[in-house]
C-alpha cells in the first residue's frame, strides 16, 4: 500500500464512510472526513461537505488526491450533482475515485449507475464498489432493524428470493484497498457475504440468536412501495420496491469471492455478525 497523499471520504459519518475513515486512519493514512456537519472523527481532519452546497466543495477537495464517494441519500438522479463535483475534483488534482454503488445497479443503470458509467472517462484510476444488501440493515437504524425491534417483523416484496448479504466492515476493508493499493482495480467489484440468504432465513437466524420471535411478512411490490413512500421520496420508494421484486426473481442470488481476494480474509457470516452485535 501507499501512504502518500490525502484521501477525502465523503459521507464520513455514514454506514460505510465511518468505517472506511476508521480503517484508513488506523493504517496511518491522512484522511479528510467530509460530512454535512464537520463533526470530529478520530484520526481524521473534519471538513464540511454537502452535495447540494457547491460552496463546500473546494475546501473539501483541497490537497486531496483520492476520494471515496457516497452518493446523496434518497436522490433518484445523483448524477446531476455528482458529475459536476467529479469534474471539479479531477481539475483540483484527484487522480483516483472509488464510488459506492449497489449490486442491484449495473453500469449505466438508474440512479448511481449513470455515475458509474462516467467514472472511467473522468479518472485513470477508479473502482466502483457494488455491495449486496448490508447485514447491518438488521441491527442498526435501517427500517428493517427498527421493525424487528418494534414489531418482531421484516416487511419486504422479496418473496423467497435470496441475497448475499454483506458485512459493512468488509465493504470498508475493500474500499481501503481500492483507495490505497498501488494499482487501482479499474473495474466494478460485486461484494457479497459467504452465503445467500432469504428474508425467511434472516428472520429465523435473528430469532435463534436473540431469542425474540421475528417473522418475515411478504408484501406485493405496490404494497412495499406505499410502505416505503411514508419515509422516502416516491420515486426512490418505487425504485427500492422494484429492487425487492428483482430479488424475488433471483437477481441477487449469488455470492462472490471479492472480499477475500481484495482483503486476504474470508467475508464474515451473518450469524457471526448477529452474535457480535445482538447476541
From TrEMBL:
Coiled coil region boundaries: none
Highest taxon of the lineage: Bacteria
Limits of the NAD(P)-binding domain: 11-106
SUPFAM superfamilies attached to this UniProt entry: NAD(P)-binding Rossmann-fold domains (SSF51735)
Signal peptide positions on this chain: none
PANTHER family in UniProt: PRESTALK A DIFFERENTIATION PROTEIN A (PTHR43162:SF1), PTHR43162
Annotated protein name in UniProt: NAD(P)H-binding protein
Amino acid at each position: 500500500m501507499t501512504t502518500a497523499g490525502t484521501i477525502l471520504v465523503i459521507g464520513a459519518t455514514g454506514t460505510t464512510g465511518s468505517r472506511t475513515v476508521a480503517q484508513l486512519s488506523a493504517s496511518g493514512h491522512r484522511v479528510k472526513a467530509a460530512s454535512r456537519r464537520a463533526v470530529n472523527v478520530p484520526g481524521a481532519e473534519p471538513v464540511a461537505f454537502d452535495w447540494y452546497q457547491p460552496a463546500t466543495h473546494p475546501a473539501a477537495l483541497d490537497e486531496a488526491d483520492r476520494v471515496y464517494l457516497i452518493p446523496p441519500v434518497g436522490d433518484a438522479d445523483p448524477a446531476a450533482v455528482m458529475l459536476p463535483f467529479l469534474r471539479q475534483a479531477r481539475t483540483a488534482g484527484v487522480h483516483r475515485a472509488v464510488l459506492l454503488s449497489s449490486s442491484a445497479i449495473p453500469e449505466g443503470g438508474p440512479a448511481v449507475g449513470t455515475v458509474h458509467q462516467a467514472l472511467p472517462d473522468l479518472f485513470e484510476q477508479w473502482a466502483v464498489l457494488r455491495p449486496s444488501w448490508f447485514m447491518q440493515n438488521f441491527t442498526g437504524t435501517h427500517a428493517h432493524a427498527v421493525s424487528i425491534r418494534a414489531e418482531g417483523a421484516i416487511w419486504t416484496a422479496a418473496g423467497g428470493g435470496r441475497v448475499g448479504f454483506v458485512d459493512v466492515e468488509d465493504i470498508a476493508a475493500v474500499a481501503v484497498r481500492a483507495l490505497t493499493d498501488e494499482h487501482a482495480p479499474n473495474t466494478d467489484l460485486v461484494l457479497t457475504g459467504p452465503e445467500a440468504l432469504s428474508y425467511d432465513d434472516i428472520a429465523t437466524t435473528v430469532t435463534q440468536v436473540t431469542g425474540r420471535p421475528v417473522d418475515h411478512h411478504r408484501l406485493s411490490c405496490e404494497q412495499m412501495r406505499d410502505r416505503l413512500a411514508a419515509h422516502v421520496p416516491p420515486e426512490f420508494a418505487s425504485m427500492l420496491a422494484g429492487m425487492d421484486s428483482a430479488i424475488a426473481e433471483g437477481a441477487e442470488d449469488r455470492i462472490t469471492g471479492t472480499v477475500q481476494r481484495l482483503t486476504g480474509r474470508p467475508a464474515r457470516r451473518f450469524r457471526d455478525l448477529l452474535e457480535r452485535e445482538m447476541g
